[in-house]
Amino acid sequence: MTYRVADNRTYSSISENNHRFKIVLLGESEVGKSSLVDRFVKNQFHEFPQNTIGAYFTKTVLINDLTVQLEIWDTAGQERYHVLAPMYYRRTQAAIIVYDITDHVTFEKAKKWIKELQNQVPSTLTMLVGNKLDLNICRSVEFDELQKFADENNLLFMETSAKHSVNVTDVFKTIARKLSKIETANADDGRSQHLLVGSENDDKRNCCM
């Protein structure tokens, strides 16, 4: 399988990042997954993009003075490639499930993607994104419906327009911010446990003296 790769940093500098996270985009064909990534990574929009089999991008963002490297995997939406999805789930820290706000079928399919993701990698941070906000007059999925489903399933959620660059950066920065907080909290917990174990060992040594 071949992948399109876009990298805004040299590989020699990647190891210097404070944080590094893998994000996978899931959803049906033609909902605008590739357009969201192109807008975020390259600030480009193509009216008639080619179907994606698989694409990999990296983008570095600054979150609260921390350098965060996002590894973004854009997946194929066609049904015949669905079998490949589990390959993208490995070591994924976050998933963006995209649907088209003008096509209710893609919203129902997004629910199935979320269920599959939660079954296979339940700890993954998940955001549900309704794209094509520029076609709001033609919407078939109301914002209240999105919010209700997201709240019931503990999901982040947002509506975007890749065409007009509405909320696109916010999607990725929100995820980067959440993941950075989780990683920092986990690191703090690890240090606390290490200090606790060290204190217990010191106490044991003192008792034996």
UniProtKB/TrEMBL annotation:
Q: Which CDD domains match?
A: Rab5_related (cd01860)
Superkingdom to which the source organism belongs: Eukaryota
For this UniProt entry, the molecular function terms from Gene Ontology, in alphabetical order, are: GTP binding; GTPase activity
Ordered alphabetically, the record's keywords are: Nucleotide-binding
InterPro entries, per the entry: P-loop_NTPase, Small_GTP-bd, Small_GTPase
Which PROSITE patterns does the protein's record reference? RAB, RAS, RHO
The family note in this entry says:
Belongs to the small GTPase superfamily. Rab family.
Q: What is this protein called?
A: Small GTP-binding protein domain,P-loop containing nucleoside triphosphate hydrolase,Small GTPase
The major lineage groups are:
Eukaryota, Metazoa, Ecdysozoa, Arthropoda, Hexapoda
